[in-house]
Amino acid sequence: MISDTVGTPPSRPISPAEFRAFQACRPDHERWELVNGEPRMIVTTIIHNIITGRLVALLSSALMEQDPTRLACQHPGVELGVGGNDCPEPDMAVFDADYAPGQQFTNRCYLLAEIVSDSDEQTVPGTSERWIEVKRRLYRAHAPCEAVVVIQEDRIDVLVDVKTATGWQSERLTASDQLIILPRFGLRCSVADLYRNTPLMPRWGTGNRP
């Protein structure tokens, strides 16, 4: 039995299979991750969702030109095939465009991205790693993955990991005019393109009004 009631998450560590059964009982609008056997609900901010949407739009446009066999999707269900009792849910991913009707999960992602939430900064129970560090490590361990993007929502800071023939190479971008270039995905945009219309780069004349 996964929970005493539909509204109550399990009070004990559970397996990935039990976690998927628990997810299936939850309302469609909820997002959950399994963190070292502990179900954790994902709560996001407006800026988080704006940045995610912008990245999906930029990649969708780029992929239409570069490789229409792939698509960008916000909040996909993924089965990474790594991680033991960790089941992260990326904020967005690039995967094959030929998915099946009714398909909920993909097990082949080429790009995985996270916009860092407060919960991502929490230490994983029983470890010294932050959850965002675990997620980044698992994404890089996912064999088909070619790129990982980690975006901070409280400051201009984008970490880009790209898989090369000799291993992973990382670049941190902290200026709005720096370029994010991912040739395999046809993406060439500025850091500003991700943060536009957020409190970090508000529309002209709006200031920081609540």
TrEMBL record:
Signal peptide start-end: none
Gene3D superfamilies named in the record: tt1808, chain A
The protein's name: Putative restriction endonuclease domain-containing protein
Organism expressing this protein natively: Microvirga vignae
UniProt-listed Pfam families: Uma2
Putative restriction endonuclease domain ranges (all copies): 18-191
SUPFAM superfamilies documented for this protein: Restriction endonuclease-like
